[in-house]
Amino acid sequence: MKLQGRRLDMRALETAVGNGTKFHVEAPMPLNAVDLAKQLIRFRSINPPGEEKECSEFIARLLTGYGFDVASFEFARDRPTLVARMPGTANGKPLCFTGHIDVVPLGSNEWQFPPFDGIVQDGRLYGRGASDMKAGVAAFVAAACNLIEDGRSFHRGITLVITAGEETGCEGAFHVAREKGLGPAELLIVAEPTSNAALFAHKGSLRVVVTARGRTAHSSMPHEGENAISKVAEWIRRLEGYDFGARHPLLGCATACVTTVRGGENINSVPDCAEFTVDIRTLPDQRHAALVAELGRLFGPEAEIRIVTSFPGFATEPDDPSAAPLLALLRERTGAAAEPAGAPYFTDASALVPAFDGVATLIVGPGEAAQCHKTDEYCLVERIEEAQAIYRDLMLRMCCGRAE
């Protein structure tokens, strides 16, 4: 569906935004990443329950105005992930950027700065999602649109993947991957908050429920029963002292954290069922199926283990040639080579890296990691401007031939 003109009726836009639908509108305008970040913050895209639709439509309208081909993929009603493409004139794989537009709830503490006003004060942009991660999305969207505005031609294409549902399990990214809506990529930049430093890896997450069965009896005669809570307590003890063995130079070792425990129905009965949940932060080379089998051997045959979620990690070698252009420009800006580092959390890269066939990936974004999910969340304005410049230079080097 093709939509023309500088102004786009919202009803027409809503008709155009459908699962896999593409649409175009011509309405270029100057873009500044800080101003765009303010606008994105003003959309209350809280997840849960998931209210990304209006923010997504705004970005879709903006990108189509600059000539991007935009497809929308809904993993649930009104929960769209956008895949925006600017094709290149050559056959090379495109440069890809990704970021999510959902934000976590506000919490119970009072905010000094209204969380959805996008206020700048003392060099900080305040608002829910300022660091995590609407500033990152604004920076790469503005960088790409500025090059188009400047009349640049692209020999390598650019793909922007703007996801919904990241905060509750990367639903949008996994959905577009399942729908095979991504295509190829030469390099993936995840604009999550790193203060514009480069991260080369992050851990995965394997979340499981472990259940124990027993036999109920009166609590005054515990020998007549079989206490499921006692079994769970013993398994947790074993897990807390367990070494999964594998090590990674950037990520260290896998970790396991027991996060919930449930068991019993009343105070005067031996419990016949109990369960606990575990979040295992895994290394990129660890197979999650093998880890589940390892847990089974650790706990014994009585343990019932159910996988809740399984998100793989990733790691890019520091000398990967696809990452070289970004690392070179970061070195020129700072005067020092990027120190290889990784993160213990996971991102949409868990879904996108396998879908992009193991593409070289770096996490580089303007947000402050320490600000994620906090009351009065903020992002430094200078970081947003710096990120826009970094992304623009990378696009020039990889997609337009040279940086200026």
> Tally the helices: what do you get?
10
Adjacency order of strands in the biggest sheet: 1-2-3-7-4-8-18
How far is the first residue's CA from the last residue's CA?
36 Å
Average pLDDT figure: 92
Report on the structure:
The chain is α+β, with helices and mostly antiparallel strands and 404 residues long. The longest helix has 20 residues. The N terminus is likely disordered.
Record keyword descriptors for this entry.
404 residues, alpha+beta, four-stranded antiparallel beta sheet, 30% helix, elongated
Give a brief rundown of this model.
This protein is of the alpha+beta class.
List the SSEs and their pairings:
Elements: H1 10-16, E1 21-23, H2 33-41, H3 53-65, E2 69-74, E3 80-86, E4 95-100, E5 119-121, E6 124-126, H4 130-149, E7 158-163, H5 171-178, E8 187-190, E9 201-202, E10 204-213, H6 228-240, E11 247-248, E12 252-253, E13 255-263, E14 273-282, H7 288-299, E15 304-311, E16 314-315, H8 324-334, E17 342-343, H9 349-355, E18 360-363, E19 378-380, H10 381-400
Parallel strand pairs: 4-7, 4-8, 8-18, 9-17
Antiparallel strand pairs: 1-2, 2-3, 3-7, 5-6, 6-19, 9-16, 10-14, 10-15, 11-12, 13-14
